[in-house]
Amino acid sequence: MSDSPGISSRKAEHIALCETDQVAFQRKTNLLEEVELVHDAMPEMALEEIDLSVEYAGKTLRAPLIIAAMTGGTEEAEAINRDLAAMAEIYGIGFGFGSQRPLLTEGIETGYRVRDVAPNALVLGNIGLVQAVQATTSALAKMVDTCGANALVVHLNPAQELIQPGGDLDFRGGLKTLERLVQELHVPIIVKETGCGLSRSVGTRIREVGVQYADCSGSGGTSWVGVETLRARNEQKSLGERFWDWGIPTAASVAQLDGLGLGVCATGGVSNGLMVARAVALGARCAGIARTFLQARAQGGVEGLDTMVRQVLAEIRLAHLLAGAKTPAELQTKPLILGPRLLRWTPRGSRLWDRAHPSV
Fold it and tell me: What are the structural domains, with CATH classification, of the chain?
């Protein structure tokens, strides 16, 4: 148990930093501003007819929205996660824990107890791939059952670890571990980056070992390299400042994963409902918002958080109507206008490439 104060202290620092704008990418955006939905002036539908429900990780969400992974392992995280999970329950959306390494390695349950306030919501567990490599399947199953998760997010974060003081330096054995967990764990596996995006190559590799869901977590939102840079000293700080903006933008990562058969959640700088709709139109099954919700709660408490969630959901619904789509699946058939920077990331010959060159 000797390491637990260090883990808890690091998690507390992460919360404090992520409640500010200090940790945003400095120059790079998530490129969702390069996705233009084509306006339909005659949508021939009523707002109430729109059905936003989608399937993700084996659960039906009432809207394509997840309150994305942020924190856990501290007393402050306990209050935050319970408020966020309760909001997910109210609106029928998803909720994700931050890294559960404190629970797995130290038995710290603080910050991971939400099922009494969110009995029906999609709840996503979370562990780093390096920790998953080192853990037995039974230990991970126990962690999942302890927090009542419906699926396990296995996050990839080599850039963050390389800058983090005392971070991991050995990233071998990841693909075989994912294959083991797909075969042996009793819940779906979601492969997630942490702000640097997933390439088509990575998407292909994880799909080949049986992974069905991914969270692209692209660049353009919170830079976890930046978070660790603010905590680092000397040489590590200099390295972090150089690599602060490293990664594949969120929209580019969604485009890279197009057509691979993965159910994709788009996170990384997503901050409003229009961005969610743009990500869904690109091909994502749903999108996740993290720092915007964390800041809304920090500034306005539960009422501020509730207001923000309702606004995001209203924006998603409005975007569907104005694009002439009754469902997220229909939105993915509508024409798109993509900007030149995003087009460079879009695979030629893909379905998305064809949709991005419409006759409107």
Answer: 4-355 (3.20.20.70)
| pTM for this prediction | 0.92
Per-residue pLDDT reduced to its tens digit, 108-153: 999 999 999 999 999 999 999 999 999 999 999 999 999 999 999 9
SS3 assignment for the chain = CCCHHHHHHHHHHHHHHHCCCCCECCCCCCCHHHEEECCCCCCCCCHHHCCCCEEECCEEECCCEEECCCCCCCHHHHHHHHHHHHHHHHHCCEEECCCCHHHHHHCCCCCCCCCCCCCCCEEEEEEEHHHHHHCCHHHHHHHHHHHCCCEEEEEECHHHHHHCCCCCCCCCCHHHHHHHHHHHCCCCEEEEECCCCCCHHHHHHHHHCCCCEEECCCECCECHHHHHHHHCCHHHHHHHHHHCCCCCEHHHHHHHCCCCCCEEEECCCCCCHHHHHHHHHHCCCEEEECHHHHHHHHHHHHHHHHHHHHHHHHHHHHHHHHCCCCCHHHHCCCCEEECHHHHCCCCCCCHHHHHCCCCC
